[in-house]
Amino acid sequence: MRLSLVINGHPYELSCDPRTTLLDTLREALGLTGTKKGCDLGQCGACTVLVGGRRVLSCLMLTATVDEEVTTIEGLSKEGEPLHPLQQAFWDHDAFQCGYCTPGQILSAIGCIAEGHAGSAEDIRDYMSGNLCRCAAYPRIVEAIQSVVSARADDAISS
Question: pTM higher than 0.85, yes or no?
Answer without folding.
Answer: yes
